[in-house]
Each structure stands twice: as C-alpha cells, then as structure tokens.
Specification:
It is built from no helices and 11 strands. By secondary structure, it is mainly β. The strands form 2 sheets. Strands 2, 4, 5, 6, 9, 10 and 11 form a 7-stranded mixed beta sheet that branches. It has a 4-stranded antiparallel beta sheet with strand order 1-3-8-7, with no helix packed on it. The protein starts with a strand and ends with a strand.
C-alpha cells in the first residue's frame, strides 16, 4: 500500500512558477512508477508527467514539455513537479499517482493522492 499526499499548489500569475510535492508513505515507494495528472471541472483527468522508479526516464504531455520538470527523491519518498512559465490553461487540480508498471494511462495507476489546486491568473 502507498499513501500519497500532494502539497505546493496555490495561486500564481501567468509566467510564474510553482513546485508541487507528493509525499508517499510505505517502504515500496522506490519501486513505483510515479505520475502527475490534472483535472478541471467537466473534463477528464489528463496525463501531465511521469517518471520511472529510479528517475532515469521521464515522460511529458506535449502541452507541458519544456515548461514542467518531474523528479523524485527516493530517500525522501517524494516526487516533485516543477512548473515554470505557467499559463492560465494550466489551472487545474493536480494529482500525483503511483503505478506498479510503467504507464501514462490514467486508469492504470493504482494509488492516488487527494489533489492540490493550482490557479494561474492572467
């Protein structure tokens, strides 16, 4: 079992930056493929970024490539999402999630945090 808790969301102006953190409980965190997703009202949850168990491989949605960076610190059981050059369309609830196998498909993730709101003002 893995429990995930996100933090770091908030209100930021367009062009600004935020860093989201996701703290995980459980000794098996380092074996999980971790991802970040986001969701706005009335829309399906969408993939943002993912990272392999050892951080060697990262994956990004086209909409955030070059602006967002995913990383993890297995010693701290934490995964991060550094968001830069934020746009109003990045406004959403951001969720971190863990999967037993490498995937960017939302329904393939096994564990989810409660989400953290990111609001980007124009």
């Amino acid at each position: 079992q893995v429990q995930l808790v996100e933090s770091g969301g908030g209100l930021v102006q367009a062009g600004g930056s935020l860093r989201l953190s996701c703290a995980a409980s459980g000794r098996t965190f380092s074996s999980y493929f971790m991802g970040w997703f986001r969701q706005t009202p009335g829309k399906e949850r969408e993939f943002v970024a993912a990272i392999s168990w050892n951080g060697a491989r990262t994956y990004y949605a086209d909409s955030v490539k070059g602006r967002f960076t995913i990383s993890r610190d297995n010693a701290k059981n934490t995964v991060y999402l550094q968001m830069s050059s934020l746009k109003p369309e990045d406004t959403a609830v951001y969720y971190c999630a863990g999967a037993r196998e490498p995937t960017v498909v939302v329904n393939s993730y096994n564990y989810w945090g409660q989400g953290t709101q990111v609001t980007v003002s124009s």
